[in-house]
Design goal:
This protein has 22 helices and 24 strands. By secondary structure, it is an alpha/beta fold.
């Protein structure tokens, strides 16, 4: 019996009442209104990417990267094929089953190991290794051939080789181990918090998987689910000097607060590397912006040397989907350091998910958003898209504008101000965040609402004061620019209205919903509003923005402005 046939026959026969149609081009069509929709979505989402999500049929696609990430978490090709067969309305095409077996089966066939202190690329398939070694994009990173099953790899090419291999379709499993960093005793303070089971599982999966303790990989958890706690737990397991990369100064301060509150670390062991005080200590916090600063475009990035300034045992990449290109470059050079990526979504709008996979590491743990919601660890979220008219006076200007100008005109639709006021009135007693892309629009809204506005130019001290007032309840409405997209510790926020966004950014949509996902008193739901100009490009971009959250099981209620 062939491998494909055995996979196809490993589960029950297809059933016309099922919700899934599997097509030979590796696309999957899922019927939204079928009673088995939720179960089927949960079964296929770990290894398939959502492409489109209109009202009745959602389209997923099987990609090499989606299958490799699933395989790296331990999901077998047989389990993937069984999920398709279980929910298929019609027979699953044999080529799809064969493709899954082939692509998912590539994970682990090529490995990086160390033997006698020497880095080696190995494969039990000598013919495969010979074929890979001849590829023009791989050959420059290989040293001498040691045997039919192994090549020497110069240590400085460890990252570049991994990038080259994934580009030619052969992801390498890195089992070469890691340097021992400077020892640093870190203990979690059980008297201050209770570690949730999934947080412990995530940290231990990162630490214990692989050929030795510690390693590299990405943990995917919803916003509000405690990714920072996973980071602290990983630090305690590794107990070595740690470099933490964050998205902003606000995020740095939050990490510092959590480290001091929930671990045995003392204040003098945690330092911040920033423009006005470039300190390096046992635990060092900095931002991606700081690392990628340079005097002018003709010079290199001077602060990237921070990666080698201390014997780091662990590097944590917070919001790893935001990793800028220069940090990818230096990360390729520090593959012997343990690396942990934390994120709510692996989506990158620049298409560099493969670089995250090869340089930070494969996905090690992923907790579905709705599963954590069902357990009460994140708030139930009600998502509403409110469509509003574009005023007659702007219609002709919109009709004759260039595409980028069209999007901005639609985004800054003045009707959104009145809708924002209605949302606040409807949730009169709830803490509300208003967030958007364009400063003039936000300045108008803040002025009309008599609410403070936080932008990138707001001094850090003023930001912290406003965030503190929002947390203690003395401030009920806060207007935010894009600085509010990431790492804001505002757990009491119950309502968020986004008046504009970054074109079709799926990651931004997920991050913004995350601002209101901390559990609410008495189990109250969070409310997430998106204001969209009807019959404009903003409708199409809004649909694309919603894809990731739709994949997580959220649905958007559509209202006309008169219904709000």
């Amino acid at each position: 019996m062939s491998k494909t046939n055995s996979l196809a026959e490993s589960d029950a026969a297809y059933d016309p009442r099922n919700p899934l149609i599997v097509q030979s081009d590796r696309s999957l069509l899922l019927e939204v209104h079928n009673p088995l929709y939720e179960a089927a979505r949960a079964a296929i989402s770990p290894f398939a990417e959502l492409e489109k999500s209109p009202e009745h049929i959602h389209t997923y696609r099987l990609t090499p990267l989606s299958l490799w990430n699933a395989a790296a978490t331990g999901l077998s090709a047989a389990a993937m094929c069984a999920a398709l067969t279980r929910f298929a309305k019609y027979p699953v095409p044999q080529n799809v089953l064969a493709d899954i077996a082939d692509l998912a089966g590539r994970w682990g066939r090529v490995r990086l190991r160390k033997q006698d202190g020497e880095l080696r690329l190995e494969s039990e398939d000598a013919a495969l290794l010979a074929e890979i070694a001849r590829h023009k994009s791989v050959k420059p990173y290989l040293g001498a051939q040691l045997s039919a099953s192994a090549f020497h790899v110069p240590p400085q090419f460890r990252g570049a080789l991994k990038q080259a291999l994934i580009a030619v379709g052969w992801p390498v499993e890195d089992l070469a181990g890691y340097v021992v960093g400077e020892a640093l005793e870190i203990e979690l303070r059980a008297d201050r918090f209770i570690l949730r089971d999934y947080q412990e599982d995530a940290a231990e999966t990162f630490y214990f998987s692989g050929s030795e303790r510690g390693g590299s990989g990405v943990i995917v958890l919803p916003c509000g689910a405690g990714k920072t706690i996973v980071g602290l737990t990983a630090m305690a397991l590794v107990s070595q000097s740690t470099l933490i990369l964050t998205t902003s100064r606000t995020s740095m301060r939050q990490w510092r607060r959590e480290l001091l509150d929930k671990t045995s670390l003392q204040a003098d062991q945690i330092v911040e590397y920033q423009s006005d005080e470039k300190q390096i200590g046992p635990v060092t916090l900095t931002t991606y912006q700081m690392l990628t600063w340079r005097p002018d475009k003709t010079e290199d990035f001077p602060h990237l040397r921070l990666f080698e300034e201390r014997n780091w045992g662990l590097i944590i990449y917070d919001e790893v989907h935001m990793l800028p290109a220069p940090v990818f470059r230096v990360t390729a050079e520090v593959q012997a350091r343990r690396r942990l990526g934390l994120t709510a979504t692996l989506i990158r709008e620049d298409g560099r998910e493969g670089d995250v996979f090869s340089l930070i590491g494969p996905k090690k743990y992923d907790a579905p958003w709705r599963d954590l919601e069902a357990r009460g660890w994140i708030a139930k979220a009600l998502c509403t898209e409110v469509r509003c008219r574009l005023p007659r006076a702007l219609r002709m200007e919109y009709a004759t504008a260039q595409p980028r100008s069209k999007f901005r005109l639609a985004s800054e639709n003045p009707v959104k101000l009145e809708l924002t006021k209605r949302i606040i009135a409807h949730h009169r007693d709830a803490p509300v965040l208003i967030i958007g892309q364009y400063l003039e629009q936000l300045q108008t809204i803040a002025r009309e609402l008599r609410a403070p506005l936080v932008t990138g130019k707001t001094p850090q001290r003023e930001r912290e004061r406003l965030y503190g007032e929002f947390r203690d309840g003395s401030l009920r409405t806060l207007v935010l620019s894009k600085v509010g997209n990431y790492a804001l510790d505002l757990p009491d926020a119950e309502v968020l209205a986004q008046v504009s966004g970054t074109f079709g950014s799926r990651q931004e949509e997920a991050q913004r919903l995350g601002r209101v996902l901390r559990p609410k008193p008495d189990g109250r739901p969070a409310h997430f509003y998106t204001l969209v100009s009807r019959e404009t490009d903003e409708e199409d971009f809004a649909h694309h923005r919603q894809l990731f959250l739709t994949e997580q099981g959220y649905s958007y209620r559509i209202l006309d402005e008169e219904e709000l």
